[in-house]
Amino acid sequence: MVDEERLVMTGVQVEFDRRAGRWVAACDDPGGEERLVVNAETLERAERLLDERWRARLELLDHEGEEDR
C-alpha cells in the first residue's frame, strides 16, 4: 500500500493561460508517466482538481501493485 502522507507532489506548476482564460495546474506523475495536467476557471479549482487527480493516480498505482503481488 502506498503511504500518501510521505509522498509529495513534485514539479508543480500553476499558471493562468490568458488565451484560454483558464488556470492550468500540472505536476509530475507519481508513476513516472506523463505529467498530470488540469484546467479550470479558478485557481482554487485548478489546485483542487490537480490534487484529486494526483491522489487518484496514487490509488491506481497502489491497486495495480496489489494485483501484482
Automatic annotation (TrEMBL):
Q: Look up the domain of life of the source.
A: Bacteria
| InterPro entries referenced in this protein's UniProt entry, alphabetically | DUF1902
Pfam families from the xrefs? Answer: DUF1902
Gene3D superfamilies recorded: TTHA1013-like (3.30.2390.10)
The residues covered by the DUF1902 domain are 12-45
Q: What is this protein called?
A: DUF1902 domain-containing protein
